Amino acid sequence: MADFKLFIDGEYVDSASGETFTTTDPATEQPIGEVAKADREDAKRAIQAARTAFDDGPWKDMSGEERAGYLDKMAELLTANAERFAEAEARDSGGTIKKATFADVPGAAGALQWFARMARERPDRVELEGSPFPPSENYVRYEPYGVCTGIVPFNFPLLMACWKMGPALAAGNTSVLKPASYTSVTALMLGELAQEAGLPNGVLNVIAGPGGTAGEELASNEMVDKVAFTGSTEVGRRIMQLASGTIKPVTLELGGKSANIVLDDADLDIAAAAVLFGTFFHNGQVCESGTRALVHKSIYDEFLGLLVDRAGKIVIGSQMDFNSDLGPMVSRAQADTVRRYVELGREEVGEPICGGSEPEGLADDLVTENFYRPTIFAGVDNEARIAQEEIFGPVLCVIPFESDDEAVAIANRSIYGLGGGVQSGSVERAQGIADRLQTGTVWINDYHMISPERPFGGYKQSGIGRELGTAGYDIYRQAKHVHTNPSTGRDGYMHYAALSGNI
Ligand code: NAD
Question: Is 137 within 8 Å of 165 (Cβ atoms)?
């Protein structure tokens, strides 16, 4: 019997097979509950519900104002239930309760509110002035695609679900979401908000299950009109292939290996905070983490001292304790990946200058193997595998440089281009560098500042398209041009004079 059921067509249901999987607290490895395990059949059921809700339901024909009302209501209900959602998110994902309380839940509610505003403010019909073919009158109508699927990763389950569902619904589409198996609970809980807000049945559907079956169905099914995916570049490639069968547009938010550049004129206090927060927040399980710190040679030794000193003070413990800065990794598998990369780093670079092991002295109920200390490798060559491959763990590579040009060249030498930072006392110099970085976001004297009003996405193999901002709303709408000739005749068609009857 599932404790957390699939949300399909307005109802919580078991999977067709009746199968479930156990979700656990990664800090203690104690079970949280049984989750209904969707396979292809359940995915098809959810897609069919979304299809019918789009084709026959009232959703797409409502005004933007009406749709916005539902999204605002869901945001309000999420905020009213913030504590319950934050606790569920922290326990299921291993992210700290502090992060869930101050980032995930308000961020998710904020995204819903932003897209509600988009539905109100962005016109769905724009009259075009003048005509190249007088006396025609022309307008562009913005229409929803239809059924939009959203496949999301384990690191920010609730937030990513709302980044997908918010714009899809605001623009008049219907949606099927699939969270990652390790972290399905809060996305499934969105169904409660939909029910309470009175969202029409089938407009939002949420299923949990393996990527290889349920996920592949969401990316390939011919009833699906658009796919949005956040996750690894490897799976993103597969999503593109699956979507290509019926030429579905894809939005892809993929991996990263972002560079955080510390110039010789930086305030080292602020820069150290930006580098440490930029790398170790949520154990480095953040796509745009600044996991390559490029540090000017003239401040290199002093800066390393600051990093090591402060990294050692980061508090590791139960994610449910408000005093913890870091909890466990999302899973034993992810912790094992970190251990493997740290061993590789030892071979490629030598001993890390801090970290490099599990923390000692954790409370008895915590599983030490699932935790890892913030780890810093210094003097790293940018060509090393630990500097090029996404580790998705608390591992920082520090790379020295001597000139701004060299820093830009190193930063851009990556298959990824998602985020990045420039730490400098000169805004002009920092912006000059920011303009030359091949990446979707640059923070100057800051890091990880993401908000729904600003576009977010990647260059190169970090993705296609943008989420958030106005771009993140418009990407869920098709533009239709309607040309009207209000008169009954036309003087002539330039290539076919005979057709106008003038010959
Ligand atoms: P993942 O790619 O393993 O899985 C992501 C989602 O895809 C999960 O729901 C999974 O079940 C599903 N999936 C897996 N195989 C599939 C398939 N063949 N077909 C359809 N769906 C499939 O990623 P993860 O381990 O959950 O998350 C970590 C990755 O996500 C990192 O690479 C990180 O950089 C990336 N990420 C990117 C962003 C961004 O905005 N660019 C944000 C967060 C995370």
Answer: no
